[in-house]
Amino acid sequence: MCYRIQPATNRGHEAITPFPELIIFDCDGVLIDSEVISARVLIETLASVGVKVDAAHVQTHFLGRSWAKVAAEIRHSHGYLPGTDFEEKYRTELLARFEDELAPAPGIHTLLARLTTRACVATSSSPKRALRSLELTGLSAFFETRVFTASEVENGKPAPDLFLHAARCMQADPAQCLVIEDSLPGIEAAHNAGMQVLRFTGGSHLRGMSEEALSLGGTVRCFDNWELFFEMVPHANRQPDERMGK
Hints:
The protein is of the alpha/beta class. It has helices at residues 35-47, 55-61, 67-78, 84-101, 108-114, 127-136, 140-143, 161-169, 184-192, 211-214, 229-232, 240-243, and strands at 2-3, 22-25, 118-123, 147-149, 177-181, 196-200, 222-223.
């Protein structure tokens, strides 16, 4: 079931694990509203080399995946292998667009300021893109060095490697971790890692999708506004001594 802002009397969804030890945030489409920008730049850059794809194709085949997997899919489906020059052109143009267009997800600053549960970022983005994105949107201070990217593991999402790597570095039990994701590969990766997952559906790239599609037929709990987060994870904004029952 997906949860949207509505009168308080109509709410009543159940909370997820009461005491998550670690909350792992995906970056693109969760902390920052970047996926529409990324898709547009990739479509334009591919068109410049004669490869035509649309936004639906990007969302189905590229969303949430590492660049290595994106490049492999382009080669498989379109017979073109993006080389180093192509990748550099795409990344340069994307960061240039981010400078002017990138915005944080509405409400995420307020959420992170209240969050007392330990948190980190685990993203398929490159280190340079991830760090710059967090800087541009004013989110760097909330995570500092607790940012992990697919470049640090052998297999990107939907493999569990990245989330397990983040949990190891944060010295957290995977079973006590809660992942916030927007993409299908990310949700699958969280499940493969033995972690709980919530799907954030407030990004521009998911607008217009049905509740059935967003919740994957009711198998994944999702929400579209950060104001709802503490209703779903009610203890995440309490003080540590309160969470320990002291």
